[in-house]
Design a protein that fits this description.
globular, five-stranded parallel β-sheet
């Protein structure tokens, strides 16, 4: 029986925000340690829910943190970071895709995804790609998973969800979806094989 395997995107298949700190810090004249906490938080959640544009996200983020710098340069730094792939996970996806239904569910925003989909054609392997800005909610909210289940027409018990963020996996499990916390491609391969999926 084919199962439904739902992948996260950032830090599972491609780079997200981490590892941009050293390059982004001098753009705003801040410590690298201040970069990720400054980018994340409620403003990022609102951006990922589709409640604002990228320019508004940066304006609000800079105002909240007291950052002054070249926002266009910051945008370019992040886009270069998104070009990096997480080693090995695409290979796992390629093995899995002919055997099962594969989907993507990502907390992301429209502008970044427009760029990411343009530089990562392997994302076309997914039967459908779901993004938080379209769903109007993020993966710490049950309704993100409920919307995906309704859209793909599959019961939760037939699905497996893969994410690097344990809280997202916990939310998936709360709606009855089996969850794998991603720590690397080989560990993922083993977890899938243990479930009879590879």
């Amino acid at each position: 029986m084919k199962r439904c395997v739902i992948f996260d995107l950032a830090e599972v298949l491609i780079a997200g925000l981490p590892r941009c700190e050293e390059e982004l810090a001098p753009v705003f004249g801040i410590s690298p340690d201040a970069v990720l906490p400054g980018l994340r938080g409620e403003v990022m959640l609102a951006y990922n829910r589709g409640e604002m544009s990228e320019d508004e996200y940066w304006a609000r983020t800079c105002a909240r943190n007291g950052w002054r710098g070249d926002v266009e340069r910051a945008k370019a730094v992040l886009r270069r970071n998104f070009a990096r792939k997480v080693p090995g996970t695409e290979d796992v996806l390629r093995e899995l895709a002919p055997l099962h239904r594969v989907f993507l569910l990502s907390d992301h925003n429209r502008e970044w995804i427009d760029h990411i989909e343009g530089i990562h054609p392997f994302l076309g392997m997914f039967e459908r790609r779901f993004y938080s800005y379209d769903l109007g909610c993020v993966k710490t909210e049950r309704r993100a998973f409920e919307q995906v289940l309704a859209a793909i027409g599959a019961p939760a018990a037939e699905c497996v969800f893969i994410d690097d963020f344990p809280q997202n996996v916990a939310t998936a499990r709360a709606v009855g979806i089996d969850g794998i916390v991603f720590t690397g491609a080989e560990a993922l391969r083993a977890a899938l094989a243990g479930r009879g999926l590879l």
